[in-house]
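Onboarding guide, step 5: your first structure request.
Type a short instruction followed by the sequence, for example:

Predict the 3D structure of this protein.
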Amino acid sequence: MLFAKRAMALILFLAFLHSPAEAAPSHTQAAVPGYISIQIDPLKNKLLIVDAQGNALKSYPIALGTPKTPTPTGDYVVINKYKNWGSGFGTRWIGLNVPWGTYGIHGTNRPHSIGHDASHGCIRMLNKHVEALYELVEIGTKVTIRGHVLGEPHLNPRPLAKGDSGGEVLLLQNRLRGGAYYKGVCNGKFDSSTEYAMKLYEKANDLPIDGVVSFQDYVSLGLVE
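The system replies with structure tokens like these:
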């Protein structure tokens, strides 16, 4: 298969994923509620509310990130909740503790986008649906976003360059650090030091020296084949 090495890449990603300090929430419920959790299915563009026994209680259609601005995969928790958080976010915001950026579950003023990969990485819901979800979740509710850090298996991983962020960047940083090319902090943010390390790697491996992670670079790094 095109991405036979993705399982190992996912293991490395999970091993190095560190969550930052939580932002101050707008609500003060108990830290770790145990009754429900949320699961995101990117193949069906569905959000599932799941009980403590793993039974699906409710399903909602959602919009997720595009291939260029993917929704981060992994296990997260709710860190804040706001009503009418800002223009474009609908009537409710439920924030997640993604280390490299501001991501959350929110409403939308673009209901036609629901069911598609159309967001900048957040999880969009119809306003009436996110309002119902908002009343069920607490600070600390677990949110699992399924999928692989390098994207859906039938698609090539997205090119990476300075200014990008995400799980792929975190994976890249750790791979470069393992080869002694990268000396910075592994934080999922493609900054100048990541670009410099990538150029060092490209030079050492006879690749085009541009600091941009192309499919050829992914293959050379051993992340795909």
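Each response can be followed by summary notes, for example: The two ends are 8 Å apart (CA to CA).
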